[in-house]
Design goal:
Belongs to the iron-containing alcohol dehydrogenase family. It contains 13 helices and eight strands. With about 375 residues, it is α/β, with parallel strands linked by helices. The chain folds into two domains: about 150 residues, Rossmann fold; about 200 residues, Up-down Bundle (Dehydroquinate synthase-like, alpha domain), CATH 1.20.1090.
């Protein structure tokens, strides 16, 4: 089997610590940046701005608020703004959707860019791909940027800890998926000779182990505003180490059933738009485990899910039972995801549909 992978390690410069923002001018100077477009959100920007006001002293900064979605329309709008304004560097300050957006705008414009994540909710600040949404928030696939990575990922834990806890919990769930989505694939003997795939597997194991050991303590510390070792360790796993899993493992470790079902329910069930990405992926982990027949692992994870109020089923999300047509549409979309077929098991629409139904029955019985 050909296991040649596209390796995308991560940002060219990474720093996560108090005072880390002070490194940004040095990097902008390395790129000869003069005119900088800084793209930001709303609430997160109010908290982040005091950390970055010093940039106005040496650079021509223009501030642009994005529309709240990482959509093709918004990306094209910002790309035109970059070109018309003759900007030579882009900085994104905000959450996962904003980081994804800036990655894609950088790809469209071929301009260097950096990101300052304001919360730890996923690996979007690290991973060179963008999850795309329609302007109304429904999922619309993704774009991959194999040859372009951020010039920097820099942020401060005193900023990240000031975010809503629900985003952090969603980030823990999204990161937990790194192990469960890649486990069955990378445990196969034919991959053992590929060093980078084994690095992906080791990175995924770090994600699982750190979250199991320190996740609850990190959440409690965040609730108390305590920038503890555990909080730094867990948040760094979420937006850093998690990105290494797909960066080292390419298609074999990026995502399989958990994210495929996320995309499918996001595309066909408008009601799940009220749930964060990581919360939907949490359900996706249980779906993947049901697909693999690993009911004991589901049992082991249920206490953690209940402690973190993560959804275990579509029923809990208020979306089940489903009309047959919607159920078939979801299954059809999951089946079209090529990476689901990397799982070493029979995958077809009948199998995928059965897993949805079986999981709902199992969770409802457990309750």
């Amino acid at each position: 089997m050909d296991t040649v992978v596209n390796v995308k390690v991560g940002p060219q410069f990474y720093k996560y610590g108090q005072g880390a923002m002070e490194m940004i001018p040095d990097i902008l100077n390395e790129y000869g940046a003069k005119r900088v477009l800084l793209v930001h959100g709303t609430i997160s920007w109010e908290k982040a701005r005091p950390y970055l006001e010093f940039l106005d002293e040496d650079f021509a900064i223009e501030y642009e608020k994005y529309n709240g979605e990482c959509s093709y329309n918004e990306a094209n709008r910002l790309a035109k703004l970059v070109e018309d304004g003759n900007f030579d560097f882009i900085i994104g300050v905000g959450g996962g959707k904003l980081c994804d957006l800036v990655y894609y705008v950088g790809s469209l414009t071929k301009k260097p860019f950096g990101v300052v994540p304001t919360l730890a909710s996923n690996c979007a600040p690290w991973a060179p791909l963008s999850v795309m949404y329609k302007d109304n928030g429904l999922a619309e696939g993704k774009t991959e940027h194999y040859k372009r990575q951020a010039a920097f990922l820099i942020t401060d834990p005193t900023l990240v800890i000031d975010a809503p806890i629900k985003f952090f919990i969603a980030g823990i769930a999204d990161t937990l998926a790194k192990w469960y989505e890649s486990d069955m694939i990378l445990e196969q003997p034919q991959f053992e000779a590929n060093n980078f795939l084994m690095l992906a597997r080791h990175s995924a194991r770090i994600c699982k182990d750190v979250l199991a050991e320190d996740g609850l303590k990190a959440i409690e510390d965040m609730r108390n505003g305590n920038v503890s070792t555990e909080f730094i360790k867990v948040s760094e796993v979420i937006f850093g180490v998690a990105g290494l899993v797909g960066g080292f493992g390419d298609k074999y470790a990026r995502n399989t059933a958990a994210h495929a079902i996320h995309d499918a329910i996001s595309a066909y069930l408008p009601g799940v738009h009220n749930y964060l990405h990581g919360e939907k992926v949490a359900y996706g982990i249980f779906y993947q485990l049901a697909l693999e027949g690993k009911w004991q692992v589901i049992d082991e994870l249920i206490p953690m899910y209940e402690a973190l109020s993560l959804p275990k089923s579509l029923t809990e999300m208020g979306e089940y039972p489903l009309p047959e047509e919607e159920l078939n549409n979801i299954v059809e979309l999951v089946n079209k995801k090529q990476k689901v077929h990397l799982l070493p098991m029979t995958i077809n629409e009948a199998v995928l549909k059965k897993a949805i139904i079986d999981l709902e029955k199992y969770i409802n019985t457990e309750v």
